[in-house]
Write a structure and sequence with these properties.
The protein is of the alpha+beta class. The chain has two domains: 30 residues; 403 residues, Cytochrome p450. The protein has 17 helices and eleven strands. It has a five-stranded mixed beta sheet. A two-stranded antiparallel ribbon has the order 5-6. It has a two-stranded antiparallel ribbon with strand order 8-11. A hairpin with a 2-residue loop joins strand 5 and strand 6. Helix 6 packs parallel to helix 17, helix 7 crosses helix 8 and helix 13 crosses helix 15. The radius of gyration is 24 Å and the shape is globular. Belongs to the cytochrome P450 family. This is Cytochrome P450. It catalyses: an organic molecule + reduced [NADPH--hemoprotein reductase] + O2 = an alcohol + oxidized [NADPH--hemoprotein reductase] + H2O + H(+). It is an enzyme of class 1 (oxidoreductase).
């Protein structure tokens, strides 16, 4: 055998052994971990996962190893939680112990800044500030509702411009929630044809596709190796950098025009907090944290809602009988002469159930962003060392067949009782649960109800193809489940 080949194989074997020893030492004497499949050197259990549909792979493994099991992804050990009981026990019952954010290499561009992936006291201060500022600017109040109603009118006018011709709704549906979050963050409203606005929308759509791809699952398992290879991760990082630069320019403009007696938006409030805290040993309120927190709010406040709207319309095209019942309830409760409002929701159990079923059925964030143990945790009969990555499989909760009979079927009856009244469910976790539950949950719920009802109040939806031939299978199932591309007619009612 060629000596160079022998040397290469020897080096590979040595590296494999070192990685295994390093991984073993991390857990040695520090915990009793749940069972799981035997990992291979270097690659761990990645071959036992279908990278096209990781949630389904995790559900299959749970049948063999139970609701709490261990996976090795590269050199990182991950604890998977499957089913309502395990997820609730960790995220809600022991919320403080699992409140840290797990390691997400592709999001390392944030360097631990922002509300999304920060931990410890920094995260607590930022989350508390974000929730307080959202409330002060009207989240869950009439002022925010009026803002969404106004944006819904812009959306209707933009949809009318399609003149009943088939169109791909991706960008139009993205603009509405993006403008809502921009009003809160920047006090800006962009025209739907504004080129900078459209470019930002393009970056968001592009990045959610990249972050949900198979390649990023590989990147997150082997970041130190894959980072230097060509691939879409470079494009994602570049897009993040552009967004951060855009936000930094907005921050600088706000610094020049700030009036402390009249804060206009989230950035103004953050800048004022920075001034108040400059003598305090708090490291949460810095320019870096401002930029990355705004980016987190901007991305989460735009892409999750717009994807849900888009996926929801595709499902309604697939089920015209359900859409017909929605039109009947909207006509009966709201009519055609006023805008829908949140007070209507309590009188519209079927519409409320459909919106909930859309969120359950599409299962937008199937594995959520990973959590991590903030301390050594005794969880069931296991001892999980501090820093252990925790993956709660939200799919296993949203698709629980005891709570939601025939979960693979789209059925608003999952959220209706025998009398046709709306029925709440503790298993409804599209926004996650516990300490890390989505900070904008209230805003998103309001947007989804008002945007869906306003669209259906003004338009009849029609598919260019037979509803029976519509495929609602997601095209990606990584960070998010994304709907296939489609076109539809918005026919004025």
């Amino acid at each position: 055998m060629d000596p160079s080949v022998v040397i290469a194989l020897g080096l590979l074997l040595c590296i494999s052994c070192l990685l295994l020893i390093s991984s073993w030492k991390k857990g040695f004497g520090r915990g009793k971990l749940p069972p799981g499949p035997v990992p291979l050197p270097i690659i761990g259990n990645i071959l036992q996962l279908d990278l096209k549909n990781i949630p389904e792979s995790l559900c299959k493994l749970a049948k063999e190893y139970g609701p709490v099991f261990t996976l090795q992804l590269g050199v990182e050990r991950v604890i998977v939680l499957h089913g309502y009981k395990a997820v609730k026990e960790a995220l809600i019952d022991h919320g403080d112990m699992f409140a840290d954010r797990g390691h997400v290499p592709i999001l390392k561009v944030s360097n631990g800044f922002g509300i999304g992936i920060s931990n410890g006291e920094r995260w607590k201060h930022l989350r508390r500030f974000c929730l307080m500022t959202l409330r002060n600017f009207g989240m869950g109040k009439r002022s925010m509702e009026e803002l969404i109603q106004e944006e819904a009118k812009y959306l209707v006018e933009e949809l009318k411009k399609t003149e009943g011709l088939p169109c791909d709704p991706t960008f139009i549906l993205g603009c509405a929630p993006c403008n809502v979050i921009c009003s809160f963050i920047f006090q800006k409203h962009f025209e739907y044809k504004d080129q900078k606005f459209l470019y930002l929308m393009k970056l968001l759509v592009e990045n959610i596709k990249i972050l949900s791809s198979q390649w990023i699952q590989v990147y997150n398992s082997f970041p130190s190796l894959v980072h230097y290879l060509p691939g879409s991760h470079h494009k994602a990082i570049k897009n993040f950098d552009f967004l951060h630069e855009f936000i930094l320019e907005e921050v600088k403009e706000h610094q020049r025009t700030l009036d402390p007696s009249n804060p206009r938006d989230f950035i103004d409030c953050f800048l004022m907090k920075m001034e108040q805290e400059k003598q305090q040993p708090q490291f949460a309120f810095t320019i870096e944290n401002l930029v990355h927190t705004v980016a987190d709010l901007f991305i989460a406040g735009t892409e999750t809602t717009s994807t849900t709207l888009r996926y929801g319309l595709l499902i309604l095209l697939k089920h015209p009988e359900i859409t017909g019942k929605l039109h009947e309830e909207i006509d009966r409760v709201i009519g055609r002469n006023r805008s829908p409002c949140m007070e209507d929701r309590n009188k519209m159990p079927y519409t409320n159930a459909v919106v909930h079923e859309i969120q359950r059925y599409i299962d937008l964030a199937p594995t959520n962003l990973p959590h991590a143990a903030s301390e050594d945790v005794q969880f069931r009969q296991y001892l999980l060392p501090k820093g252990t990555t925790i993956v709660p499989v939200l799919s296993s909760v949203l698709y629980d067949d005891e709570e939601f009979p025939n979960p693979d079927q789209f059925d608003p009856g999952h959220f209706l009782d025998e009398s046709g009244n709306f029925k709440k469910s503790d298993y409804f976790m599209p926004f996650s649960a516990g300490k890390r539950i989505c900070a904008g949950e209230g805003l998103a719920r309001m947007e989804l109800f008002l945007f869906f009802t306003t669209i259906l109040q003004n338009f009849t939806l029609k598919s260019p193809i037979d509803p029976k031939d519509i495929d609602t299978t997601p095209t990606a199932s990584g960070l998010a489940k994304l709907p296939p591309s489609f076109e539809l007619y918005f026919l004025p009612s």
